[in-house]
């Protein structure tokens, strides 16, 4: 299907890379997203003003489409979340566990990167990040160093 998907409450567990069809995922409330296996999806994601997309992190997930809007992302779970789009979302990303792998310097959007647990941050290319970083009490951000990252 190609008309997009509106997710305003509850959650989705993706079983394959085509589960979202070809349209955008439009997030309008507090929602969750997970994958039953390691997946890469290319759909765009629109985070509405009250949109909060909590990526649960049971398995590695690559979000390859552009993520826009004023809402926010949350990254939980031990698995890697890869962001490959040149993203414009402004609500920030809160990472509480696992790993973030960024495909470009715009992958975090324009908001703050909040670290609430033990998180690693790496890039698949050299990165120059302009985002503010907020470390929570007891949180740790590690940089494995596969690529140079300027913060």
Structure commentary:
The chain contains no helices and 17 strands. By secondary structure, the protein is mostly beta strands. The chain is globular and about 40 Å long.
Keywords:
151 residues; eleven-stranded parallel sheet; mainly beta; four-stranded parallel sheet; 17 strands
List strands and helices in order, with pairings.
Blueprint: E1 5-7, E2 10-14, E3 25-27, E4 30-35, E5 39-41, E6 45-47, E7 52-55, E8 61-63, E9 67-69, E10 72-75, E11 80-83, E12 93-102, E13 113-123, E14 127-128, E15 133-135, E16 140-142, E17 149-150
Parallel strand pairs: 1-3, 2-4, 3-6, 4-7, 5-8, 6-9, 7-10, 8-11, 10-12, 11-12, 12-13, 13-15, 13-16, 14-17
Structural class: mainly beta
Order of helices and strands: EEEEEEEEEEEEEEEEE
Residues in helix, %: under 10%
Overall pLDDT confidence:
97
Give the CA-based shape: globular
> Helix tally?
0
- Show unreliable segments: none
Largest sheet properties? 11 strands, parallel
- Strands, total number: 17
Measure the end-to-end span: 40 Å
A few lines on this structure:
By secondary structure, the protein is mainly beta.
């Amino acid at each position: 299907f190609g008309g997009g998907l509106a997710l305003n409450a509850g959650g989705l567990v993706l079983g394959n890379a085509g589960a979202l069809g070809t349209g955008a995922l439009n997030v309008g409330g507090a929602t969750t997203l997970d994958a039953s296996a390691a997946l890469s999806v290319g759909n765009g994601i629109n985070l509405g003003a009250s949109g909060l997309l909590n990526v649960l992190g049971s398995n590695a997930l690559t979000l390859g489409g552009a993520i826009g809007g004023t809402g926010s992302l949350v990254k939980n779970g031990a698995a890697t979340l890869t962001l490959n789009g040149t993203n414009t979302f402004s609500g920030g990303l809160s990472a509480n566990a696992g790993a973030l792998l960024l495909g470009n310097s715009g992958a975090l959007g324009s908001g703050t990167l909040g670290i609430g647990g033990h998180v690693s941050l790496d890039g698949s290319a050299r990165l120059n990040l302009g985002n503010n970083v907020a470390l929570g009490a007891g949180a740790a951000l590690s940089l494995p160093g596969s690529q140079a990252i300027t913060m």
